[in-house]
Prior knowledge:
This protein has a single domain (14-20, 39-350), classed as Aldolase class I (TIM Barrel, Alpha-Beta Barrel), CATH 3.20.20. Helices cover 46% and strands 13% of the residues. The chain contains 16 helices and eight strands. Strands 1, 2, 3, 4, 5, 6, 7 and 8 form an eight-stranded parallel sheet that branches. The protein is globular, with a radius of gyration of 19 Å. The two termini are 34 Å apart.
Amino acid sequence: MSGGQFSGSSIPAMSDPQLLRVLTSTGEMQQELFEQARAIRHRYSGDEVKFRGVIEISNICQKNCDYCAMRRSNGALNRFRLDAETILAVARSILEVGITTIFLQGGQDPHCDPILDEVIPAIAHDLGAEILLNVGERSSETYKRFAQLGARSFIMKYETSDTILHNRITHGPLDRRIQCMKWIRDAGMKIGTGNIIGLPDQSIESLLSDIRLALAFKPNFVSAAPFIPNPGTPFQEQPLGDLDLTLNTMAILRIGLKNVLIPSVSALEYVRPGGQLMGLNAGANVMTINFTPQSYRERYRIYAQDRFIVTLNHAVETVKSAGLTVDPGVQLGIAASDTTSLKDNSMAQEEEQYGQGT
Length: 358
């Protein structure tokens, strides 16, 4: 299969057998796929990798997803919910290093909404940062309120497009997730979505469906993450998701959607050291750096207790290794910031070597 057959227009037009061949490609064909994904990224988005600073604001969740240790029925997890003062203090530290996207992520915890109502305008208007939210299913009115307060974008992953599998592992309907995705877009926010690769009983055909759902929905950003077996969940004994299928999915989405933001998630680093570099080489152009306070970060077990915590230094070195560039503002922020608190935060982060990020 020649490079021309990996063009943006050809991916959506491929038959299932053709797309399956690309999705499962290895060796020379896989490298050709990655090369085309990098060429598309360069043409439509340039070579700069966008950094996000994540604050994990709550590990309380209404949902009971079988793959997540923050599931409602996990009574062994020590729960937390950050207050507005803590969130704003961390947001300021993110801005100090030149990262201008503040990513507020949490379990599906409606009791966070009054806190978000306070911190969103403070971060968006007073601090002048871009706000990305990932806090679960809400009403259309709530999404509109978040947007009016200043939130620019929202992540709502569909996880799997297989309606039966989705209902069985999340204990909720796929239609609800898709409806929320539409409400988010209707509210005026940019929408991010994506899937998990390697879920128990997930078929290769459903992965093709996942890709087609993303291509049809045309999100502003999209992710593919390998499944991580999480202690304290029904899936804790399951194997890791397939790295090659994940990387190939990322490359296909880059080619098919061209200028979307695609994160190189830290789950890739958990599956294999250097995995995030492999993600960038497969067409990704986003990395998320964890700024959650240490004592809370250890309790945010969305994928694994021993998840890999992405530090600023790790992200910068990974981007440089990929031959890509870091936002000049971040480079200036790193050079200008020599406070003890920042150094201590970075050192504490480096102590955690394995696990999945956002």
